[in-house]
Amino acid sequence: MTDSPAAAQPVVEMEHVDKFFGDLHVLNDINLTVRAGEVVVVIGPSGSGKSTLCRTINRLEGINSGTIKVAGEVLPEEGRELARLRSRVGMVFQSFNLFAHKTVLENVTLGPVKVKKSGTEDAKKRGMELLERVGVANQAAKYPAQLSGGQQQRVAIARALAMDPMVMLFDEPTSALDPEMVNEVLDVMVGLAQRGMTMIVVTHEMGFARKAADRVVFMSDGQIVEEADPESFFTRPQSTRARDFLSKILTH
Hints:
Elements: E1 10-21, E2 24-35, E3 39-43, H1 50-56, E4 65-70, E5 73-74, H2 79-86, E6 89-92, H3 104-114, H4 120-133, H5 149-161, E7 167-171, H6 179-194, E8 199-202, H7 206-212, E9 215-220, E10 223-228, H8 230-235, H9 240-249
Parallel strand pairs: 3-8, 3-9, 6-7, 7-8
Antiparallel strand pairs: 1-2, 1-4, 4-5, 9-10
């Protein structure tokens, strides 16, 4: 984590963002700025709009009104400019979304070779470095189905990192994992945070929020209800909604 993310340049800026699914107001006047090197953890009850917020940042979900900027540029609607900007926004999903017919190393090198036109050998060298960093270099020649869920998710993180993103989005990256595999993925994410990676993490893992976040954003009913540093949020939540949420999840 950086010493003073508040002084850094904004990487993601959301201003008055609204999103509807039919009559359902999923994102309601969202205003959020995430600066370079900052780790922002988004928490809240199911259905509060957390994943939708995450998915609008690289326009996997369109918005109805407001603006989203990445590195000072308004997110394009579609086309080549959107693809270019999207390539700088890494995303890790609940499901690992690896290509089943490609090896682990091929999964990691595909983006740099196809999108960034990296040389094959350079991409392989970088891919192995990233697999080493996430602790699965010894699985490089295997196919995804031969790996555990935790290993597959770490490969998915390496694949996103291979594109040299300016920000990493994590949409509940541990929710599909068996409990004993959760920590191996969270440890990789903590390591990224310590290296200064800009991260927006939607998660139910409160331990990770306490350990790695610069800021916790609490959502409910499509709105940002509260945001604070982890210590303040977990010990002195300001809103009734946050207090109620924490009382339910921290007592089990």
